Amino acid sequence: MRATHHLLGKGLLGRSMEELRRRTHIALKLEAVKGPLDPRPLYDFDTAPSVQDCIVMSDTLIGGSSKSNLDFITPASSGSSHSVAACSSSPSAYARFHGLISTSLPADRPKIQRSGYAAFRTPDQRPTLFGRSFWDIDPYTYLALRIKSDGRSYFVNLQTEAVDPSDLHQHRLFAKYPGRWETVMIKWNDFVRTNHGFVVEPQTELLRQKVRTVGIGLTDRVQGPFELCIAKVWATNQVAEGATVVNSAESELKNRKGQKIHWCKAQNQNAKI
């Protein structure tokens, strides 16, 4: 019996063969010893299904009024105000994360004291014959994102196979050129563990072999519209030409005492544990 293209492309067997090819490539190139030379793609937003499979969230889960959308954009589908620029650095297809932030509190839920957020994340990875699927980014230094931001204070969110499933590892997404496509690179070691928006103390190291999802959130609680476009995310050891490499001096994350957290301070605390 010959496997069909559909089975190989989308089924358990297809995902398993892709993982086997990846592991074989690592072995043949001795990447486990020398380190990987090529970047590892994590998620591309270049097809309608890849965008539709993402999980979109907002404060409507707690009765808030913010609006959050994630649309697939191509030159044919985009209007004049969101058309792909003619320059060669613009992607031919991407996802547009947009909506409206509202800080209005639900009248029928007096215990809710804060609202005004929106977010999305990539879908959970499907299992293979090797078991549950994760991104093993341990051999890589940077997380890279190809984005076009409106300049608002977005965060990159990572989910791992953590003991507490509500934990995230977060980092500010510092866009240097709002309104233009750019590559932003963040060191994996600079992500800080948080829970419900607050830094968790003591810190624990990012489980680099078991990264489940990557996402972007907006929690600045500034009322009004927002828009961020994203083409792809990947892991790499090479700094891309013209990329913005984040200098993690200070975050906008806070602990439960309301104190701002410095990235270097959080990492030093982690090293002492």
TrEMBL record:
PANTHER family: COMPLEX I INTERMEDIATE-ASSOCIATED PROTEIN 30, COMPLEX I INTERMEDIATE-ASSOCIATED PROTEIN 30, MITOCHONDRIAL. Belongs to the CIA30 family. Pfam families: CIA30. Its main location: mitochondrion. Residues 44-230 form the NADH:ubiquinone oxidoreductase intermediate-associated protein domain. Keywords: Chaperone, Mitochondrion. One of its GO terms (molecular function) is unfolded protein binding. The keyword Membrane does not apply. The keyword Mitochondrion applies. One of its GO terms (biological process) is mitochondrial electron transport, NADH to ubiquinone. It is found in: Mitochondrion. It comes from the Eukaryota. This is NADH:ubiquinone oxidoreductase intermediate-associated protein 30 domain-containing protein.
